[in-house]
Amino acid sequence: MGFQAKRCGVQFNPPSIVLVYIHTDTNKIRKRIIPIRNFFKHSDCSTAAERLKNHPRHRGYLDQVPLHQLEKLHIVLRDHMQGLSLENSLASFQLDPDEDLNKLEDEELARKKGQMDTLFERNRKRKDDPDFVYDLEVEFDKSKEEKCSWDEESDEDI
Amino acid sequence: MADHIGCIPELDQKKYDAREQVKIICLGDSAVGKSKLMERFLMDEFRPQQLSTYALTLYKHTANVGNKTVAVDFWDTAGQERFQSMHPSYYHKAHACIMVFDVQRKITYKNLANWYKELREYRPEIPCCVVANKIDADLKVTQRSFSFAKKQGLPFYFVSAADGTNVVKMFREMINRAVDYKQNPSDFMDEVLEELENFDLEKKEENSEAEEDELKAESPELA
Ligand SMILES: Nc1nc2c(ncn2[C@@H]2O[C@H](COP(=O)(O)OP(=O)(O)O)[C@@H](O)[C@H]2O)c(=O)[nH]1
Ligand SMILES: [Mg+2]
C-alpha cells in the first residue's frame, strides 16, 4: 500500500483538507477529502495539524505532507472562520523582504516563519542524510568579492 | 549593584564568575535564524530551557577547550527583539556575543548597527562576531563583501543553519574566544562595579563614625 502525495488544499464548506495523491499500486490519481472536526475560530492551528497528521485513519495518506504545511492549511481555514478573505489570508504568508519583522506579534511572526520554513526544509540537511557532515566547513574565495549594495554611501549610517 | 542588574531570580548569574563557566549571547532581529543556528550546533544536545517571563531561552552545552571542560550557557532571545533592545541582565557577565543577520533581508543587516551599539554600552570589550545566515537561499551573496564587520574589526562568517555550512566552526571559535576573554578580560566592567560597591560601604562606615564624633562635639555647646 503506497500513497504519493501530490497537492493539498482546503475546502471551506464543510471545513476540510483536500489531498490529491497517487495510489502507487494502481498508479491512479485520487482525491481524498478530510473533514476537519472540532476545529473552531479560536483553536490552535499547530495542535490541530499535529492531531491530523497522527490521525489513525489519515496518517498513511499524510505521511509525505510536512507538518508545517498542514498547519498553514489550518490557518487558512481558521482565517475564513474569522471572516478574513482568502486573498488576505494568503497574502499574510507572503514575505516582504523590507518588512521589519521585529514589530510583529507572536502569531503574525509565526506565519512569516512558517513561510520561511518551506525553503528551510527544502535546503535542510538532516543527521540521517547519507551526505550529512556535522562540522561542514566551506571557504569562500574573498578575492572575487564585490562590494555589497547594502553598503552604499547613501546609507552610510552603518 | 552588579548583581541587581543581573537579577533574574531563577538564574544565579554569579555562577558565570566560576572559571569553568562561560556565557555567550545571541543578538539580531526576529527571524534571522538565531534559534535555528543554536539547534543546528547542539543537535542531540538540544534541550532549551524556556524562561518565558523574561522572553529568554537558555541552551546548555559542554565544550572541551584545550584539555579543560567548559560549561557554556548560550542565551537566546524569545521575543525581546520586539523591543529593539535587550534587558541589561541579558548582557550582564556575557563573555562573547554572536550577532546574526539574514542575507535575504537588508533591514536585518542595517539593524546590526543598533544591536552593536547597545552591546558596546554594556560590554565594551567582549569578543563579538557577525554571522550572515541563510546563504543556502542564495549562494551568490558569498561573492559580496559586507563592510559592517570589517569596519568594526569583527570576524565574519557566511553560514546556513539549514545545510550546516560553517555553523560548527563559528560556534567553536566563539567558545574559544569566550574562554580566552574570560582568562584575560580586557574590560573590568563587572569587577569594577563590584569593587565600587565595597568601596561605598567602607566609606559609609567612616562617615557614620564621623557623624557620631560630630554629635559628641556638638552636644556640649547645646548644653
Ligand atoms: N533557508 C534558510 N532558512 C532559515 C535558515 N535559518 C533559519 N531559517 C528560517 O528562518 C525562520 C526563523 O528562524 P528562527 O531561528 O526562528 O529565527 P530567530 O527569530 O532569529 O530565532 C525559520 O523558521 C526558518 O524557516 C537558513 O539557514 N536557511
Ligand atoms: Mg528565536
Short structural summary:
The complex is a heterodimer of chains A (158) and B (223). Chain A is an alpha+beta fold and 158 residues long. Chain A contains 5 helices and 4 strands; from the N terminus they run βββαααααβ.
List the helices and strands and how they pair.
The complex is a heterodimer of chains A (about 160) and B (about 220).
Chain A: E1 3-11, E2 16-23, E3 28-35, H1 45-53, H2 59-62, H3 67-81, H4 86-91, H5 106-123, E4 146-147
Antiparallel strand pairs in A: 1-2, 2-3
Helix pairs in contact in A: 1-3
Chain B: H1 2-5, E1 21-27, H2 34-42, E2 49-51, E3 56-65, E4 68-77, H3 88-91, E5 96-102, H4 106-110, H5 112-122, E6 128-133, E7 144-145, H6 147-152, E8 156-158, H7 167-183, H8 189-222
Parallel strand pairs in B: 1-4, 1-5, 5-6, 6-8
Antiparallel strand pairs in B: 2-3, 3-4
Bound molecules: guanosine-5'-diphosphate (GDP) and magnesium ion.
Number of strands of chain A: 4
Number of helices of chain B: 8
Which CATH architecture of chain B would you pick?
3-Layer(aba) Sandwich
The percent range for helix content of chain B is 40-55%
Percent strand of chain A: 15-25%
Characterize the largest beta sheet of chain B: strand count, sense, and whether it forms a barrel.
7 strands, mixed
Distance between the termini of chain A: 59 Å
| Largest beta-sheet characterization of chain A | 3 strands, antiparallel
N-C termini distance of chain B: 43 Å
Average pLDDT of chain A, to the nearest integer? 88
Gross morphology of chain A is: globular
pLDDT < 50 runs, ≥5 residues of chain B: 192-223
Radius of gyration of chain A: 21 Å
Strand fraction of chain B equals 15-25%
**Strand ordering within the main sheet of chain B:** 2-3-4-1-5-6-8
- Oligomeric status of the shown chains? heterodimer
GO molecular function, one term (chain B): GTPase activity
Pfam families (chain B): Ras
Protein name (chain B): RAB, member of RAS oncogene family-like 2
InterPro entries (chain B): P-loop_NTPase (IPR027417), Small_GTP-bd (IPR005225), Small_GTPase (IPR001806)
